[in-house]
Amino acid sequence: MLDREKIRKDFPMIQSEESKGRIYLDSAATSFKPKCVIDKVTEYYTKENANIHRGDYDLSYQVSSEYEQVRKLCAKFLNAPSEKNIVFTNGASSSLNLVAYGYGQKFLTSEDIILSTEAEHASNILPWFKVSEVTGAKIEYVPLDHEGVFDLEAYKKILREAAGKIKVVTLAQVSNVLGNIIPLKEIVRYAHENGAIVCCDGAQSVPHIKVDVQDLDVDFLCFSAHKMLGPSGVGVLYGRYELLEKMDPFMLGGGSNARFDICGNILLKDPPFKFEAGTPCVEGVLGFGEALKYLMDLGMENVEAEGKELHKYFLDEMAKLDNVTVYNPKSETSIVTFNINGIFAQDAAAYLNSQGIAVRSGNHCAKILLNVIGASETIRASLYLYNTKEEIDRTIAVIKEATLEKCIGAAI
Ligand SMILES: Cc1ncc(COP(=O)(O)O)c(C=O)c1O
User: Fold this and answer.
1) Domain end (from 278, 296, 314)
2) Is the pTM of this model over 0.90?
3) Which residues contact ligand 1 via a Cβ below 6 A?
């Protein structure tokens, strides 16, 4: 059982004087951080400030070892075969770009197809547009229904019909607009049977549901620390080791090479280090370690089960309102996307803001999806483990009372 009242005490952003009366429903953009994460970042700057893998003194050895412990912990969190499968980047966007560049641009040709969906965040489609531009590979999309739900049968048919041509399937396990969870294990199995690898954008799934990379058998998994209680500036690329070995790094520089000479010969280190050129976000990775411990102590099974329960409560309460359109009534996790009928999303969000409720409005970086759900702008409310039923009740009451006049008034 998650004790949400106890959890809330761990978050300075909830406990501070300034936060009184505020309801934060934008964790899909970035989550709040518990005190243990903030303390670790501060501790690094006040007691441990040294670069990693570079200094010949105790402090540097100590920080390097702590940094590598986080890599091990992250492997454990994902049930990865080894810490060698874990590359630290500076965010999900960075990880996705690394796969598109290092694998897509290197191995795809004009004969190949990249299979994706129209629900992707810009960070998991623009890098593949670039792969298409550079290699000539085509991008095709698996159909979604009007609620953005992935059509598994259509996916299988596309793979069967173009078997051998589809080399990469790239898609988000949970859409950042609709909160739908795709059947990733089956998607991966079918891709492998038909000669494709799967790159999964886990930015909205890893914080909320238990993700076991060996069970899913996924080839790449990309996500950000800042959406799962960790600091900004840190991301993870989990990769199958044989693929990481074949891939090119996105960046070259200090720390990623074993040696180089005046003729331009470079011997890169083995993965994951060949992908980590330059000084990383050391304090961020150490803070991420605390975030992982925090989530593991709560138990991801509990975070997932109770997150789904709270999300369902929100959807059920929304269904009782007659002034809203909900675009993801069958979604399972964390995100509720809606409009207040007859009111422009930004004006409604401004009204919610005037009542102390923080939500996001717009197209949520998934510009193609809006053709599918038939709304160019929506409001997205996203939950995390520190939100409560009381906050949802208050939000529902505010939405119920929203009028065009109040919303326009708040937006001016
Ligand atoms: C589904 C999805 N993918 C990728 C990203 C990019 O994450 P970041 O901005 O942390 O790189 C986001 C961010 O909102 C997202 O929701």
Assistant:
1) 296
2) yes
3) 91-93, 121, 123-124, 172, 176, 201, 203-204, 224
